[in-house]
Each structure stands twice: as structure tokens, then as C-alpha cells.
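User: what does the whole thing look like in 3D?
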Amino acid sequence: MTTMIDASSLPAAAKPGRRSTLLQRQGVVVALLLLILFGAWRYDDFFGLYNIMSVLRYNSMFALVALGMSFVIMTGGIDLSVGATAALASVVSAGLSDIGLGAGLAAGIGAGLAIGLINGLAITRFRLPAFVTTLATMLAARGLALLISGNQSVSVSWETSFTDLGGGDFLDFPIPAWIAIVAFIAGSVLLNFTGFGRTVLAIGGNEEAARLMGLPVARVKTLVYVLTGGLAGLAGVILAAQFGAGQPTEGQGWELFAIAAVVVGGTLLTGGMGSVGFTLAGTLLLGLIFNILNFENGRGDFTLSAYWQSVIRGAFLLIVVLLQNRLARRPT
Amino acid sequence: MQELEVAAPRRRRGLTWPWRGGPLAGALLALGILVLFNLIATPHFTSLQTLYVNLTQVTTIVIVAVGMTMVIATGGIDLSVGSLMAIAGALAPLIFAGRLFGMGPGLLADGLAFVLPVLAAMAFGTFNGWLVARFRIQPIVATLVLFIAGRGIAQVMTNGNLQAFHNASFYALGLGRVLGVPVQVWLMMAVVGAATWVMGRTLYGRQLLAVGGNEAAAQLSGLPVARIKIIVYAVSGLLSGIAGLIVIAINSSSDANLVGLGMELDAIAAVAVGGTALTGGRASIIGTLLGALIIQLLRYTLLSHGVPDAAALVVKATVILAAVYLQQVRRAS
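Assistant: Here's the predicted 3D structure for the full assembly of 665 residues, as C-alpha cells:
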């Protein structure tokens, strides 16, 4: 029978099957490979060690934020506060960086965990909608960051090893990229091989059913927001370490960038399914666009201002989403 | 499905009007307390000057938030409003300064500078609606595309430069008054009035709520769901375009980097404080007006008592959460 109503308008009735899920994710991999091939073909230094390292170093912050966002979205929620949380964490960690690397790191992550805990409790205990809750904590975290820093960037201490977190190398590989890789492996294990991960997906699939099955819905949801806050905090620490200052006004629009990366990675915003690996691919895809724009300007055939970056990113988001839509629909 | 109750005729009147003790009573009370506090504690609060300062600052938020209310009533959301404001704001000076069509200054150029940017924003809004309705892309993702790309388009058009201008028509829109009331406030009242009428008294308004209440049921009962949705995003785009023009008219300059920045969040906050549930199926235009007024007056109160802007953000966040929590308790009881 040809149905008038598309499956996606009946989220509870029809979740995409395994096959369409796979197809949905291929969009990002295809696009990423094409972009890398294009870069390697067109620009000499694209595959140079320096370029690869700096792309990884710079995008590790966004990857961490997007990782947390994947978990939140898989539960069917959303977290708009991550960018402001990262800004707050960067200010706090920069302020304590003269004590040492550990103090700065702990302070930044701690600030993130605190914001995440507020989000989680407001959403589970007071049953406030995630969108409004995290919108409010976004404002609050931004306000706190500005208050603590006195509306100015807070320079980090160069006496301690704090700046290694942003600019340092370990085994000739950027430390922030190590952090992101470890976080993604841990996230993948958490999602695929633990009860926590299964509960996350169960909540996103059908929260009521998960509750009736006796799963600890409230606890897991709270933990997911705490985790996301902590990762945003970590991203803020790396931001401060990389740019040598805590930046109270940084991080604007990070939340939407992270959502875009997650969506491009094929995770549905309705929750219940998803993959952290594809989120990483989504982050790299959006990050590479900026990199390729730089190279294109370097060639000098024609110049595209930095403003084109967002136009192209938006266009890519559109293409990938439409592509996923087509790929996922074809098998009937 | 409890949302279905939106279709019940008893909602038709009564609950839209705050003085009958509907869901707006809380918002009205909060606004009343704020006004009372200011009457006692803020010097010069009763001056016409204060009223106009607050009204002109709130008009653009109200105009955008009215469109947002209607979008949210269908169960959607529109993140692109700020970017569409930037596009409209970038286009208008290009037109009346003759950089776009090589047109000399004059009434025709001014007229086009009002109409074309608004139509452009409406076209982008239609594009949003098309993505949502025809491709069934989730509204938050569909409008995220233009949230990211839209400001870029505005920046590319102007090369990111500030466009300062002197234009009599736009001066009138920004600072002119009719019967002692700023032009933009008239505009705001017209938008609020029209939207209240559409939501309360027209078939389209009922259909819109039906789509938000239960989309599958609306589709099965033969409503043109896709068209209803496309129209609502087009309206949201149109209103964003108007708001963009007002912002550049007030400033006598257009900066694509700043026009409408963060507007989506202000508008959503006004809608949420005004009692429209983000899940769709309900809409209160007057509530949104009250929500925007509360947030604006709160900010004014804090600023006029020397509280720094950063701390005002924290207070604003608390108020938004408290308002939404109280509405929830109310609905549950």
C-alpha cells in the first residue's frame, strides 16, 4: 500500500531499520572521502604532516563537544549550553593555570560537570524541556564567564605546563588530538559495550518503555548531561591552552556546530540510534571545509573571504541531509 | 493524546484573554510585579521616555517571536530568524544606495528597499518550510542550514563591512512617530493584532494547531499539512525580514555580523515564558507579547539598578526556567 504519511511523521510507529540506518550514515563517509580526495588532488601540502597535525589540533575541541552532543541526542534530548560552558571552563581553567596543569584541567572540567549536573537535574527532576533548560543554562554560563573574567580574556600562565594541553605534542602527535581520540574510543566502548550505552539508546527509542522495563532512566539521562558538560569543559580547557587565554565570549554557535556534526554523522535528532564514530567523521568534514578554503585562498586563483566558510558549511549540511534523506528512503 | 484537546471549540475564546484567568495569569502577574517594583524603586520610570526606550527595544523581539510562536505551534522551530534578519538588513542599503540595481536615490528605490528584502527573507523562510514539509527534515536541522549559511550570505553580500547610511524613509521607520507613538511600535501592534486574529478566528489558525497537536491525525483528516507548514515558515521569514529592517533603521547602519545575532534564542525564550508549549499544538500570541515584555523589563530593571549585563544574563536564565516550571506545574494540576 502506498501510504500518504511518511514514516518520519510517525516517529513512534516506524524507526528506520538497520539497512536504512547504514545508508543514512554513508552520506558523511562518502562526502568526507570526496573532500579529502579533492584536497589531496588540488593542493600540494594538503597531505603534509604539518597540515594534518594542525587540522587535528584545532578540531579536537569541536570533536569533544560533538561527542557529548551525540550522547544527548541519542537520548532524544539536546544541549544548547555546550558553547557557553566551554567559554566558562576556559576562563576558570585559565585563572587557575598558574597553580599547574592539573588544577587548570580539574577546574575547567569541574565547571563543565557542574553546568551539566544542573541541566540533568532540571530535565529529570523538574521535567523541564531540554531545549529550554539548556537555553537558560547557556545564558547563565555565558553570564558567569563574563562576570568571572570581568568581560576580558584571562591570560594563562606560561610558567606551568598548562599550555601543553593545547600546543604540546606526545609521540609527535598533538596532545589535544590524543585527548579527543581517547575520548572517542571511551565513548564508543561506553555506547556499544555497556548497560549505560544500551540504556541511552533505549531512552531515545522509547523513554516510557525504557522506564517500564525498569531501566534507570532519570539517572542515565542526568549522567548524559553531566558527561556532555564535562566534555564541553574539557574542550574549554583546550581552548584556553591553545590560544593562551580564557575566552569568555568564545564558543558562540558551538552548540549548533556540534548538532550539525552529529546530524551530518547520521544520528537522528529523534534519538534511539547513533554512532560516535560517524560523529567524528561529521566533525572532520565540517572542519576540513575551513581548511580547504584556506588552501584555495593560498593558491590565489580566486579569493574567497572567510565569510564563505559558513555559506559552504551550510550548503554541505544541506547536501548531506538531503543525501541521507534520499539514501534512507530508497529501500521500501 | 491529550494534545487533541486543542481542537475543542471551548478553547476558541476565553483562554486567549488574560483577565479571564487563563494560563496567562502568571505572566501577567509577573509583569505586574515588575512594573510595581519599578514604580517604587526606579527613578523616572513613569516618563514617556522610559516607555519608548523599552518599547523600541522590544519591538523586533516581539515581531520575530510572533512568527516563532506560530512555527512552534506546528511542533517546529525556526533557528534561522536572526540570519534572515541579517540578510534583509544587508540587502536594503544595497538597494537604496544603488549598489545592487544601479538605481538612483528616490522614492522608488526606497520602496524597493523595503519590499525586496522582506520578500527575500520570506523566500528563504519558504525554503525552510519546503525542507521541513517536502523532505520531512526535522525543523531544527532544516533551519540550522540557514542559521549557518544565512549570516554568511549576508556577510558575503556586504563583504562583512558596516554599511552606514542616511535615508529619510528608513529614518522614519527607525525614529519617526505617528500620533506620538514610534512607527515600529505601530508595526508591532499590527503584527500582534493580525496574528491574534489568524490564530483565534481563522481556519488556518485552527489547522495550524491541529498539525501541531497531532500531525498524523491532521493528515488523515485531509488537512493540507505540507502547505500549512510551508506557509508558517514563510510567515516567520517575512516577519524576520521586517525585524531586520527595523534594526538597521534604528541604527542608521547595517552590520551583517551583528543584525539579529542571537535573536532565535530571545524569540524562543519569549515564546516559552509566554506559555506556548514547545511541543506544539498550542499558541498564545498575547502570551508571547507578555513574555517578551517581561524579559525586556527585567533587563531594563537590572540595568537601571546598576546590575552588570553579565549578571543580568544569569537572572534572565533563572526567570526563564522558573516561568517554564510554573507553567508546567499549572498544566499538570
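In plain terms: Chain A touches chain B through 52 residues (CB under 8 Å). DSSP finds 13 helices and four strands in chain A.
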